Amino acid sequence: MREKGNNLSRRDFIIRSAGAVGALTILSTPLISVLNRDKALAGEANSQHSDGTAKKRQWCMVIDLKHCDGCVGLDTPPQCTQACIMGHYKPNGMKWIEVFKHPLPGGGSFFMPTPCFHCENAPCVNVCPVGATYHMEDGSVLIDQRRCIGCRFCMAACPYQRRFFNWGTPVQPPEAAFAEYTPETQFPAIKGTVMKCNFCTHVMRAGKLPFCVAACPRKALYMGDLVEDVGSNGAEVVKLSRFLDENNAYRYKESLGTQPRVWFLPGHGELVGRRPDDPRELQPSFWPWGRDEGFDRSVGVWPWKESVPWTWEEKHK
Amino acid sequence: MITRAENYEQRLERTVLTPLSRTGKGYYLFVGFLLVVVAWGVYAFTVQLRYGLLATGMRDQVMWGLYMVNFVFFIGISHAGTLISAILRVTQAGWRTPVTRMAEIITVVAISVGALMPIIDVGRPDRILNLIWFGRFQSPITWDILAISSYLTGSLLYLFLPLIPDFALMRDKLGRGASSLKRKIYSILAVGWKGTPEQHHRLERAIGIMAVTIIPVAISVHTVVSFIFSMTLRPGWDSTVFGIYFVIGAIFSGIATILIVMAIFRKLFHLEEYLTERHFRNLGYLLLVSLLIYLYLTFSEYLTVGYKLPTEEKHLLEILMLGESAPWFWFFAIGGMLIPAALILYRRGPVIPKLVIASILINIGMWLKRFVIVVPSIQVPLMPFEFGSYSPTWVEWSITAAAVAGFVLVFAIFAKLIPLISIWEVAEDAKGHAPEAEIHPARGFAFESERVSE
User: Fold this and answer.
1) In the prediction, which pLDDT does A31 show?
2) Which positions of chain B have pLDDT values less than 50?
């Protein structure tokens, strides 16, 4: 009782300082994520420049639809899609660059190869809750599958539906399984995470053109660098700005404001001899290591067969 | 006057506390049944963990399904409680007292079940903590986590505070017959409540502060739930009205849930004296008001896109109103809104059965409404695709059934541990009929001091 005043103030002091520490802890939690992200980004930036070139790039792609006939004239599956599947050891059903048959007003059609557009105002990057998908300095949008929690919000947000999910355990050839994972190669693929086209920045660092560009038999795909203002399809080199202007380049769904880094030059394959009313359809792509025939990326059925052929149990029986 | 009040009070205590100490065979059977359903759901979840989300009907086009529907549905139901009881408390609606406790329990249980759904839905539940380690404030999911966890904390507090005097009562009354463990738990939970005027004053203040605080939190919760959809460029989701649309929908289905729960426990626990037709009728009016606002918002939502008909929205409206989702959409519109409105408005016949039927219809309708919000929007192709298709697998249905069963189960357990009617507040109200006890802060302790001196 005699130290009542003293006690009270000490108690008050302890309560208040505890309150202050608590408030500081709560208020500083955002910092954890900020600090972590800086660390992660620092790692990426170092790897970006580890090849010794200090040169900044701004990758982009130009797709000349005048040259694209969806490979129906060659009687093969679309070679861009196929090269991408083979080069990235892609799990079954994924078409990071997919050729769509797009209708024309007179009843005809044109073929439209569609990679990820690597938007500058990318809806997928905006909504990712953990920063697993992010912009690189060179303009590409990558996914870190080691961080992705698989909420698929980015898939809901992408207005071009260019993202794919590893619904089950992904099937890949042994080459992929033994590789060291990086967000650029994305293999070995990880169950329960999202994948997509990465502009083949790892291939370009080795001085080569992306798989799809190199494989296009019609030379319809151009990889470009907005900083140096050049683009190339492997056969010719163009001055990008003039090339886009002269060929009336457009971007798909420009009005959405996503600012894609992929331009299209309008056409229907006329320069490779395809008429707009050509009835031939695309040949189906194939995944040589995909043992899961019956797996459909648009319709979910479970179980769609009596057994699931590639599950862990099956392998270890 | 005092003897009448005391009789009333004793009867109240007996009626409300009896179910806590006496448990019939039916209860155990029912809980056992619920446990089986939940266990089956857990088994389905292990299947999903083993094979991945492959075990669901979701695929690259329709990438969200039943789990997301359940998430929105349960978070919606959670608005029943705390928001409504807080609004009624703030507006000093005198009839609210026997209703608030149940409403608050619904909130706590529904929000817990709802918050589990996204964790079940993600492809990597093992990495769920990444949301904290690497959380980005730009993502609506992070807003959701903040809002929902604040709401859960807030509504737990808001449930607990008015419970303190009742815990003290149970410590004193129930303790004699019950086990010492039970008595110990109740006396811990009663946090030394003696019913002094000072304590009463503080409790009233704390409840008042919580009631005011919880309202903006509750509104923020369903607003940011809607932002998960409206921050995307999808047809049907890309809408500015979604925030308020979801909030009203949540209040709508929440009130319907309270009505169902009230009717069930009125019958089971013989609470006819406290949950009178007047309570049902008043809640029925609130239900009607939220129904009309929801109807209005639905109308303006679909009229504004249907009038302009952008291509993708046109596809969506075709699926919704004429296509494969049409049965669900029209069930929601007619069975979930028009028929319930007619039932509430129709004056003849017994009030309670009418309202319960309306509420059940509304809850089915609102679940379907969430389904037609989530699924058809992502069925619409944004590229020259075929339309996406989705039919939930047994895994998803099992987990959905387990979620509903889990909700009922936790509620049933709560009903055996805490009084479903706030005894002290109802007793206080009964005293409050005496004109001299009308002064607000004095009301509590005038009654309590009498009780203590007894």
Assistant:
1) 58
2) 1, 434-454
Measured from the Cβ of residue B360, the count of other Cβ atoms closer than 10 Å reads 16
Question: Which sequence spans correspond to the domains of chain A?
Answer: 57-298
Provide, rounded to the nearest whole percent, the portion of chain B with pLDDT above 90. Answer: 64
pLDDT of residue B4: 56
The per-residue pLDDT of chain A, averaged, comes to: 85
CB contact under 8 A, A129 and B139: yes
Which among B52, B59, B233 has the least Cβ separation from residue A298? B59
DSSP state for residue A204 in the 8-state scheme: H
When the candidates are 3.20.20.20, 3.30.565.10, 2.60.210.10, 1.20.1630.10, the CATH number that belongs to B2-453 is: 1.20.1630.10
Residues of chain A with C-beta less than 8 angstroms from the C-beta of B375 = none
Residue A300: closest CA among B346, B210, B243, B65: B65
- Between chains, do A298 and B131 touch, taking CB under 8 Å as contact? no
- Using the Cα atoms of residue A248, residue A215, residue A143 and residue B385 in order, give the sign of their dihedral: positive
| Order of all β-strands in the sheet with A262-265 | A237-239, A230-232, A221-225, A59-64, A262-265
Q: What's chain B's Rg over C-alpha atoms?
A: 23
Choose among B286, B282, B214: nearest CA to B251: B286
Window 60-99 of A: residues touching B by CB (8 A cutoff) are 93, 98
pLDDT tens digits, B77-135: 998 777 778 888 888 877 888 888 999 999 999 999 999 999 999 999 999 999 999 99
* CA–CA distance, A262 with A199 (Å, rounded to integer): 10
B122 and A297 within 8 Å at the Cβ level: the answer is no
Question: Which residue's structure tokens are 């059903």?
Answer: A93
- Return d(Cα B42, Cα B15) in angstroms, integer: 37
Q: Please list the pLDDT of chain A residue by residue as tens digits (317 residues).
A: 444 445 567 777 777 778 877 777 776 665 565 555 544 544 444 444 445 555 788 999 999 999 999 999 999 999 999 999 999 999 988 999 999 999 999 999 999 999 999 999 999 999 999 999 999 999 999 999 999 999 999 999 999 999 999 998 888 888 888 889 999 999 899 999 999 999 999 999 899 999 999 999 999 999 999 999 999 999 999 999 999 999 999 999 999 999 999 999 999 999 999 999 999 999 999 888 876 655 677 777 776 554 444 444 444 43
Domain A57-298 CATH assignment equals 3.30.70.20:
yes
For residues B292 and B118, the answer to whether their CB atoms sit within 8 Å is: no
Gap between the Cα atoms of A31 and B133, Å rounded: 10
Sign of the CA dihedral with B130 first, then B132, B134, and B136 last: positive
Q: Which of B431, B432, B429 is nearest to B96 (CA)?
A: B429
Q: Where are the alpha helices (DSSP H) in B178-310?
A: 180-189, 197-230, 242-268, 277-308
Distance from CA of A235 to the nearest CA of B (A): 30
Q: What 3-state class would DSSP assign to B220?
A: helix
- Quote the ipTM score: 0.88
| Residue B130 near residue A130, CB atoms below 8 Å | yes
Interface size A-B, in CB pairs within 8 Å, comes to: 178
Distance CA B387, CA A35 (A): 43
DSSP run (H or E) holding A238? strand A237-239
Write the burial class of residue B30 (CB in 10 Å: 0-12 exposed, 13-18 middle, 19+ buried).
Answer: middle
Residue linked to tokens 């798909």 = A252
CB B366 within 8 A of CB B70: no
